[in-house]
Amino acid sequence: MRIVVVGGGTAGWMTAATLGCIVAGHLADVTLIESEEIGTVGVGEATVPHIRFFNKRLGIDEADFIRRTHATFKLGIEFRDWGRIGDSYIHPFGDFGHDIDGLPFHQHWLHAARSGGDVPPLEDCSLPIVAARANRFALPSDDPRAIGSTFSYAYQFDASLYAAYLRRYAEARRVERLEGRVVRVEAEAEHIAAVHLSDGRRIDGDLFIDCSGFRGLLIEGGLAAGYEDWSHWLPCDAAWAMPSTNVGPLTPYTRATAREAGWQWRIPLQHRTGNGHVFSTRFTDIERARALLLANVEGEALAEPRLLRFHTGLRRRQWIGNCVAIGLSAGFLEPLESTSIHLIQLAIGKLLELFPTDGIVDPADVTEFNRAMALEYERVRDFLVLHYCATTRDDTAFWRHIRTMQLPPSLVDKMGEFRDRGIVAHYREGMFLPASWLAVYHGQGIVPERVHPLVADAPAATARARVAAVAAACRHAAAAMPSHEDYLAHLAAA
User: Fold this and answer.
1) To the nearest whole number, what is the mean pLDDT of the chain?
2) Which of 180, 183, 191, 326 has the most crowded Cβ, counting Cβ within 10 A?
3) CB 34 within 8 A of CB 179
4) DSSP state for residue 144 in the 8-state scheme
């Protein structure tokens, strides 16, 4: 079986590295085509915890990966000025407390908070938030009884260095790289026979994987998949990006600060800080957005801002015939919650699960892949839209539009369940767990109208004591951690 990956960058080399690890040399021959003439967009420098399991599956040593990609650790994302100007909350990679008597901790916290008295903030009951606020980091505990086991972590890294790291990995495992630019796709009846390069070479294959970025050279250019536009829910369509020197301690979290027509990211790496301003061209001028980024960057600029344009949505079909789209060629939902790399990882995993037998694609597998990936994109979309619509801001036309726009029915139902009595619906499929939804609901001022009746029936004093105990445990556990920078230094020395 011959597999051809078109496009490098993060998506291409994540795909090629996985195929190199699992199928190259015995089940299939794997070739990746990329051109140095074409720059990569880069899908972001911040990730979610799932990336750890991707690296582990490939057998990548964490310490080596951290050093080679100039990575830092990430316990969550801080959101500033989203619910209202002056607000700050952290979406943690971990739990708020622990279930008590079979019911979520936040219900007990809500009961305690409404009973009066001195009750710690909900954020104080999440160890990753307490540690992040203190710029501390340590690996989670393996003991499920310990408070140190209630969180996970991700990475903040240089995406170009990660792609280069995976390229070395893939090429060491029989993945062949071809330098070249695809100029024509030879396709008929939803089947790609070959791609033609600018130098005249014809590269044929049995399975083609489109990692060509927004252009979608194969899935759109060759097979006309069509695109489902979600810009009416996610209107940001451009971003200025630039690196700057580090200022202050290396925070173990990414920051997203709401601006007048979008938001600004800050991602601290070991050697620099990544910055960007995501905005809607319907509500602000491109040059004004650039000036706003430059005015709010910490540290000295290391390069001129670079403009990126995008269109939120997804391909109507991400797998057609013998072509699978992975990464930006499949769709894009903006970088707010660092989901792009996860969606790449998810598509790779789903492809392996439905891998063609003897090179023959089963139409039922194609249908299942498209169903599962569309559902994942929709659920990520809803989570991103929640950040925008759960606001009281009306200071600009952008925020007035966002807070009053019509929402996806699936999100309306989910928000309604929480507003009623604090129920956080849990998807069987979907990357964001209940704690993630709770963090945004609570952080942006969505409050349940009533406490769960089984919790409300318990003594309020008991609820207050339980909340205080969890907050104390989080405080003590965080205080015992080294600083984030000390942990990185220890890792580098080891």
Assistant:
1) 94
2) 326
3) yes
4) T
Query: Given this model, what pLDDT does residue 360 score?
Result: 86
> Facing residues of 79 across strands?
89, 256
What lies within 8 Å, CB to CB, of 471 at 6+ separation is: 120, 124, 125
CA–CA separation, 277 vs 290, rounded Å? 8
Asked if residues 331 and 229 have their Cβ atoms less than 8 Å apart, the reply is: no
Greatest pairwise CA separation for the chain in angstroms: 78
Active site residues: 74
- Rg for the chain (alpha carbons), in Å? 23
The ranges assigned to domains in the chain are: 2-72+157-229+312-379
Give CA–CA dist 425/437, Å, rounded.
9
pLDDT tens digits, one per residue of 340-361: 999 999 999 999 999 998 778 9
- The helix (run of H) or strand (run of E) holding residue 289 is helix 286-296
> CA angle, 124 as apex, 385 and 440 as ends, to 5°?
5
DSSP letter (8 states) at residue 175: E
- Residues in the chain, pLDDT under 70: 39-44, 427-430
The arrangement of strands across the sheet holding 192-197 comes to 182-187, 192-197, 202-204
Top CATH class, 2-72+157-229+312-379: alpha beta
